[in-house]
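Support request from a user on the community tier.

User writes: "When I paste my structure tokens into the form, the page sometimes reloads and wipes my input. The last time it worked, I copied everything first. Here is what I submitted, just in case something in the input itself triggers the reload:"
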């Protein structure tokens, strides 16, 4: 079997490579996908791609695994960054990592690479299972590291070609294996934040592309002007940090895009009010549509699952009712649906 392994320079993908070798797979080529926007954004701060690549090379050299660097900056800008900026301009909250997986790691990679591979392996925490001709995506047993949320827009065709060698492991087990294999990056910390920004601040990235436009921050109940902001695109529903207001806590409740006004509230009633009903659109179902009305869902990456009920409004719109409300539901985010451990897919919150 001929395998392409996407190697980031981090511990997870490195352990995934060594596990495959340990299991007897020998025809493996590692690929480092160069998606950093380092040329365009270099003035903002350092991007760690050179350090990542150095670690990736050391990991491959130790086992004589060939490593190829595949530049995908243009594809990444066209298919992920442009989506992110478009959503921000519409006042929505984008999820770029979902489309990084769908459109780049398991999309543009296949289009750009010249060789044929039977499987593509990564260091994601998720489980792939083939049953009766269908490929199913399961949550990782590690609830904190589980990445099925970010994989919820994959297709059957994509999932069929994927291997997750560490997907069924706990993070602690992966760290133990990194020590056992004596990986050059065994002590490296996990990366945080959006995958293409590196050490660049998200707010600096947004400012570079969308600029600044001063507007008012108003109290929801009284319409009193409490302060100023630099553009509604810097703020999201549910935000409680970075508003620069005293006598809080303050909570972003809504945005007036035409007038560039951010509405906030410190009212205990508003702060504790949790939304239970919302609609989603443009669902992507990985293996099949939900067979029942009662499901569970994630509103963001992380261990928390909501119990919910769904009602079809049209072939591409659903109404979702949560058993327990959530106060951070924002348009543009994705709701990802589950039946037990199976990730069925996701849809954009309207």
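"...and here is what came back when it finally went through:"
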């Amino acid at each position: 079997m001929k395998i392409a392994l996407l190697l980031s320079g981090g511990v997870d993908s490195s352990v995934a490579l060594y596990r495959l070798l340990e299991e007897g797979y020998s025809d493996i080529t590692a690929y480092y996908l160069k998606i950093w926007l380092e040329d365009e954004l270099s003035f903002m701060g350092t991007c760690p791609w050179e350090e990542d690549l150095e670690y990736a090379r050391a990991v491959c050299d130790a086992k004589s695994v060939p490593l190829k660097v595949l530049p995908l900056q243009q594809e990444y800008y066209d298919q992920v960054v442009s989506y992110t900026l478009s959503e921000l301009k519409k006042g929505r909250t984008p999820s770029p990592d979902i489309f990084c997986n769908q459109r780049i790691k398991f999309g543009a990679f296949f289009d750009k690479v010249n060789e044929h591979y039977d499987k593509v392996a990564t260091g994601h925490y998720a489980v792939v299972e083939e049953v009766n001709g269908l490929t199913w995506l399961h949550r990782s047993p590690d609830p904190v590291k589980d990445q099925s949320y970010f994989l919820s827009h994959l297709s059957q065709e994509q999932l069929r070609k994927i291997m997750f060698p560490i997907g069924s492991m706990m993070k602690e087990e992966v760290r133990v294996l990194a020590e056992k294999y004596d990986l050059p990056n065994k002590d490296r910390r996990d990366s945080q934040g959006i995958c293409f920004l590196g050490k660049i601040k998200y707010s600096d990235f947004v400012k570079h592309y969308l600029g600044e436009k001063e507007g008012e921050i108003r109290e929801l109940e009284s319409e009193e002007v409490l302060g100023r902001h630099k553009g509604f695109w810097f703020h999201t529903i549910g935000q409680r940090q970075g508003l620069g207001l005293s006598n809080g806590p303050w909570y972003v409740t809504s945005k007036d895009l035409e007038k560039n006004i951010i509405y906030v509230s410190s009212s205990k009633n508003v702060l504790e009010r949790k939304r239970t009903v919302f609609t989603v659109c443009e669902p992507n179902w990985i293996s099949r549509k939900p067979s029942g009305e009662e499901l569970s869902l994630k509103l963001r990456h992380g261990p928390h699952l909501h119990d919910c009920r769904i009602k079809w409004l049209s072939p591409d719109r659903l109404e979702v009712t949560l058993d327990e409300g959530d106060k951070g539901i924002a348009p543009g985010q994705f709701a990802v649906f589950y039946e037990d451990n199976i990730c069925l897919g996701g849809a954009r919150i309207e």
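Agent notes: The reload is a front-end session timeout and is unrelated to the input. The radius of gyration is 21 Å. The chain has a mean pLDDT of 90. Escalated to web team.
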